[in-house]
Amino acid sequence: MQKPFFYIESERLKLIPLDYDHLCVYAQPEKLSLILGIRNCLIETGEPFDEAFNEALENFWKPMTQAHPEQYPWFTNWLIVLKSENATIGGIGLSGLPNDAGETETGYATDIKYRNRGYMSEALACLCEWVFQQPEVKAIIAHTFPDGLISQKTLTNNGFRLIGPEITDDGEVLLWRKTISE
What we know:
Elements: E1 8-9, E2 13-17, H1 20-24, H2 29-36, H3 49-67, E3 77-82, E4 87-94, E5 103-110, H4 119-131, E6 139-144, H5 149-157, E7 161-168, E8 171-179
Parallel strand pairs: 5-6
Antiparallel strand pairs: 1-2, 2-3, 3-4, 4-5, 6-8, 7-8
């Protein structure tokens, strides 16, 4: 029998935050699929997302979900499942609990085969709705590369405003922000 797990959903999608146990079997997509009752848990995003994903899995998601088991949705990848196919089509997540300013950050990637269909805009809207139901949150931020036009469109479709450029370890990126009132 499958253990119950938390998820949120929109019209076409189900978003499942992966807990520590799920993340420990993530490298075995057939096993994770069986645990979650999903037809397919394998996501193909291509570079640079694959490398960033693997780094986040080992260096952030696993240790943080283990350290914060009751608050794991704030520290993990959420699988984006297309209900009509019962298959994973991407991932979305948060960078942790809100900081002192009430901000948390989001990031996301869509499987190559499912891009340009509005799924990520719908997933981001669903996640934003859940995040803004949490009383301590005042804003969600995101970063995109200057040439990441599709990701920028996803953010603008969800009411994020461009704040401006920032210099990070990855070079120049654009900072986006959505407040609870927007």
